[in-house]
Specification:
The structure is a single chain. With about 120 residues, the chain is mainly alpha-helical. It has a domain of about 70 residues: Orthogonal Bundle (Arc Repressor Mutant, subunit A), CATH 1.10.10. It contains 6 helices and no strands.
Length: about 120
Amino acid sequence: MRAVDSDPSLAGRYRTALMARAEVLAEQALEVVFEPPRLDPLTGRVDPGWVLRQRLKWDALRWHASKLDPRKYGEKQMVEAEVTQRTINYVVALPPPMKSVEEMDAEAERVLRPGGGGR
């Protein structure tokens, strides 16, 4: 690995090769998943031992692919974010306060009172 670490060109090619190998393993895992089931000759049902073996093969291929290319096949995804502080004045966005019941009663009285300047 010292040769890979010391030569940037070789390191890039090595990384590309690892990613290609991970792709092959992922494709092999899909082939395992879509392989037609083996039936038990006595019962005609799917052989449970075969199912467990297929699951083990799929898990091993998936695990190996996740080690070769963790960004694409890994369990955890790294999230990088740059956060800047931004202050928003929410008071401006609020609607004007509602009138109190007393203010609405006084306004109704003024409008409905005869000769009180209503329409």
